[in-house]
Amino acid sequence: MADPHEFDDVLPENTARREPEKPVDENLFSRLIHMIVIAFMISFAGSVIGILALLQFIIMLVNQKQPNERIAELGTDVGIWVAKATRYQTAASEVKPWPWTELD
């Protein structure tokens, strides 16, 4: 499971502690290709989140308002991946999201 405090440094009350950003290290054309691929992946992730939300709602209807833990955890993991992908897309991070790095 991912660290719930992983993005604490980007919250408005914590941005004063951030170090100044360095220039982007990789080739900009290569970064553009990665950004296009990641944009498609983010779009797909949005569809997955919508399907998970609908499925979770149906499960909660049938199961006396009890959510499915595995679906909830998968939703959290997808959300964390989207956050990492967005940080890379906006150059807030140099770390590419999965599949280029490990999935947390």
Set out the fold topology.
Layout: H1 28-62, H2 69-89
Helix pairs in contact: 1-2
Description of the molecule:
The protein has two helices and no strands. The chain has helices spanning 28-62, 69-89. The chain starts with 27 loop residues before the first helix and ends in a 15-residue tail after the last helix.
Question: Which features would summarize this protein structure in a list?
Answer:
104 residues, mainly alpha
**Gyration radius from CA atoms, angstroms:** 17 Å
- Count up the helices: 2
N-to-C CA distance: 6 Å
Instruction: Give the SSE string.
Output: HH
The helical percent reads 40-55%
What is the average of the pLDDT values?
86
Tell me how many strands there are.
0
Low-confidence segments: none
- β-strand percent reads under 5%
Characterize the biggest β-sheet. none
How would you sum up this structure in a few lines?
The chain is mainly alpha-helical and 104 residues long.
